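Hi there,

I know you've been waiting on this one. I reran it after we fixed the sequence typo, so this is the corrected version. Both the input and the resulting structure follow.
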Amino acid sequence: MRENNIRIDSPRAWMLAARPKTLTGAAVPVIIGLALAYTDARMYADDVFSWTAAALCLLFAFIMQIDANFINDFFDCLNGTDDVETRLGPRRACSQGWVRMDSMKRAIALTTCLACACGLPLVLYGGLEMILVGAVCVVFCFLYTTHLAQKGLGDVLVIVFFGIVPVCITYYIQLHTFTWQVFTASMACGFVTDGLLIVNNYRDRDTDREAGKRTIIVRFGAQTGRYAYLGTGVTACLLGIVFVAEGHPLAFVLPLVYLVMHTFTYLKMVRIDNGRELNICLGETARNMLIYGLAVAIGLLVI
C-alpha cells in the first residue's frame, strides 16, 4: 500500500500515471486539423474525407500522449527531478511508489509499440512518408524529457509537436496537401498548447533552477513567464484572422471566448504567483485549450 491507499501497479495507479487530463493537449490539434480538412473536402465532388483515418489520427495522438507521460514519469524519477517533498505539481506514479520502475519500463515499450501499430495503417491514407513522421514523433517523445526540456527547448517542441505537426499532418492525411492557411492555424494551436507548459514551468521555476533545468522562465525570470503566458493566447487569436480571409469568420470570433477565459486565468496566475495553488491555473489552462479547439472547429464547420 502507498499514500492514499493506492496499491502498487493497480489500475488506479496506472490511471494516475497515464494522466488522462493531458489528453486534451493531444486531442485539440487533431480536432482542428480534422475540422480544416473536412471543411476543405467540401470543395471536392468525391467523398475524400476518411472517418477511419480520422479515428486513427486521434488514437495515435492519445497513445503517444500517454507514452510521453510514462516516459516523463520514469526518467524524472530516475534522474531525481520528481522529489516527493519539494514537488509542487501533481504527484507522479514512480516517485510516489505507485508504479514500479520495471513495470513502467515495460509500459513504455508497450505504449510505444501500440502507437506504432495504430499509426502504421495511416500509410494507406498519407503515403510512406507517414512512417518517417511517426518515427520522428517517437524519437522526440524520448528526447523531450531526457535532454531537450532540460535545455529550455520545451516551448519550441510543444509548438512543433502539439501544433504544426499534428494539425498539418492530420490535414495532409485527408487531402494529401496543406496550405499556408493550415500552417498558420497549426501555429495558433501550438501557441495555445504552449500555455500549458508555461504555467507548469512558472510554478516550478524555483525547483527547476535548483535542478539545473534551464527553462525560458528560469533564464529570463517570472515576469517574462507571465507575459509569455498572456502572449500565447493573444497571438493564437490574432493568427485566427486567417480564418476570416478563408471565409470562416466564426472560427475567428468564437475563440475570443477562449481569450477572455485565458486572460482571467492569467490574472489568477499573477495573483497566486507561487506554490501549489498554481495547479488551479494549470487545470484552467487545459480547460481553456479545449474550449479553443472546439470553438475553432465549430466556427469552421458551421456553414
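Quick highlight: The mean pLDDT is 90.

Best,
R. S.
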